[in-house]
Amino acid sequence: MDFEVKVGMEKTIEIEVTEDKLASAVGSGIAAVFSTPSLIALMENAAMQAIQDALPDGWSTVGARVEADHLAATPLGMKVKATAIVTEVDRRKVVFSIVAVDEVEKIGQCTHTRFIVDKAKFEAKSLDKAKK
User: What is the pTM for the complete model shown?
Assistant: First the structure.
């Protein structure tokens, strides 16, 4: 199947750092700052959204690899933006370059790989594991 995913597609999303996204809340540290797992989730979400509209109904993407740097701490209440740009497309494999900034500075960057999947088939294969 051919997909309409192209190099250069991009998406920026913004969130506010809330208590549930702090390192002290998610178990990744004790500091009351934006957690690395929350940063990764934000960057993955931007990547997913960057190409979702180009996929046929019933198709989506799944994350396969994240190589990230969390460069600076962000406090509770501050806004964070992540911009994902498609840098490579190889059949169902899509690679993104993602940069995250808060209201003051760049706080993260990553290279992220996602694969385009038929959602129903992907979920069925996962459920088959539970039968073994």
Answer: 0.95
